[in-house]
Amino acid sequence: MSAPGIGLGIVGCGWAASEIARASADMADIRIVAACDADPARAAEFAAKTGAALAPSIDALLAHPDVTTVYVGLPHHLLAPTVERALAAGRHVLAEKPLALDAAEARRLGQLAEARGLKLTVFFELRRAGTVEAARKLIADGAIGAPLLVRIRTIIDKRLDYWGAPSALNWRARKAEAGGGVVLMNTIHQLDTLRYITGLKVVRASAEIATMVAPAEVEDTASASLRLVNGAIVSLVASAHSPGAVNEEAIEIEGTLGRLDLPAPFGTTPLRLYRTADKTWSEFAMARLDSHRLMLESFADAILNDHPVPAGAADAAAALATVQAIYRSAAEGRAIDIG
């Protein structure tokens, strides 16, 4: 018989899974009970560190009597089929973003989870960053009025070996497996954050993408103009190889009553608010929160108390729809409307 709480099975024992293990180590409601990986040595190392049972396959992990919930941390093209297997086996699922390679597949997985009475959470951990939660409250309280103009910057300086060795590029470099580059890998977090804090969806995209530096089939550079459902315009720029970039993933929102500047969520720069009425800036210093821990706590609460998940398939689908529109616009050379 399963012990009380959540028995977590880990599928994919890479860095992201290590963060899950770290953040859940002293949580009473979550126990890592089994783990598997395509690399047996990596799975064995993870199991030894966490005390989890070593499962030789996904099927064996799903058959483990104490696994009530599955974490899926795999390359993008493997996420959706593995999530579907776990849901079909009657397990709740915590999946890394983007959940699927297209919005329709993400929606289908959400419908499958709902039909089976299961919780499906997508790990958009920026939602639990202190600056993001504070920005959401300020916007809800009307601090900047209605959003008019948004600037999103995803400026990163990745190591070239992020894409693998020149003679053996990894899945991130291959379009069929990754689905996309810096926009899908990184900017998708900020697209989700923008929708989370404003409640506004993207309805049109016009974009250009390019591969300037990366030894990859996917883009490392992007620029896009987006239209929000309320008419606001979003200017987006992304680079995976911007020389010297450190903590330059920011969102600035101008509204009818002021402006809100969200710094990189895991840096030390404070959230800044400008109020047009009195022409003053205010700064909100935020303690650095453990967003992984907070997401896991919300995930556990959703399962154990039947509360809404902190980020679900519908959220992944909304972000993916925008990413797909950006890629399609760049390919077709025209603006793309999003239904």
Automatic annotation (TrEMBL):
A Pfam family this chain is assigned to: GFO_IDH_MocA_C3
UniProt GO molecular function: nucleotide binding
Domain of life: Bacteria
All residue ranges annotated as the GFO/IDH/MocA-like oxidoreductase domain in the record: 133-260
Segments forming domain Gfo/Idh/MocA-like oxidoreductase N-terminal: 7-123
Protein name: Gfo/Idh/MocA family oxidoreductase
